[in-house]
Design a protein that fits this description.
The chain is an alpha/beta fold. The chain has helices at 2-13, 28-37, 50-54, 59-64, 81-88, 107-114, 126-134, and strands at 69-75, 92-99, 120-123, 148-151, 170-171. The longest helix is centred in the N-terminal third of the chain and has 12 residues, at 2-13. The model is unreliable at 150-173 (pLDDT under 50).
């Protein structure tokens, strides 16, 4: 979604894409959207996350530049890992927030209606944990459903912290 929205902004402000930009995407789908627009986008061969993007060899010469500027297209509350790592390496990083994630208004009522049928809830993203925290899932059980929460392996969090208020999650392996 961010790639399409970013390209709309690009069209609005520039009659042609800026030259000399290295276009990177976290995954192949996003890279293809950029390529379809005519941009020479690259993405990691293995993985579809910030860690995979940072592991790409092209960063070595880029980070050697004293004036490296990086603009990250994303939602309002995306992960900070990529920007943190690039700033630590000396890059100037800015964000272009292109969309906002919102909890559906009917979610709490829908979960309450499903409560008698649920034993477990599978949490697939950090955003789902944020929503879970809003629904008072801090204990590892959803207060709306009583279901045990399962965290998908690979969901990242800072060591020693709960994940957006969900502090007692079991990990899937």
């Amino acid at each position: 979604m961010a790639a399409r929205l970013g390209l709309e902004r690009l069209d609005h402000y520039w009659p042609q894409p800026p030259e000399g930009v290295v276009w990177l995407a976290v995954g192949g789908g996003t890279a293809q959207v950029l390529r379809d627009y005519g941009l020479p986008a690259q993405c990691p061969a293995q993985g579809q996350d910030s860690e995979a993007l940072l592991a790409m060899p092209l960063w070595q010469p880029l980070l050697a530049r004293p004036d490296l500027k990086v603009l990250i297209w994303r939602g309002e509350d995306g992960r900070e890992h990529l920007a943190d790592q690039l700033r630590t390496a000396g890059a100037r990083v800015d964000y272009l927030p292109l969309y906002a994630r919102h909890m559906p208004a009917e979610l709490a009522a829908d979960l309450a209606a499903l409560a008698p049928q649920l034993d477990q809830v599978l949490v697939l993203s950090v955003q789902a944990c944020v929503i879970g925290a809003r629904l008072r899932l801090e204990t590892g059980r959803c207060s709306a459903t009583g279901a045990v929460l399962w965290q998908v392996n690979g969901l990242r969090r800072r060591p020693g912290s709960g994940l957006h208020g969900c502090s007692n999650l079991s990990r899937c392996r």
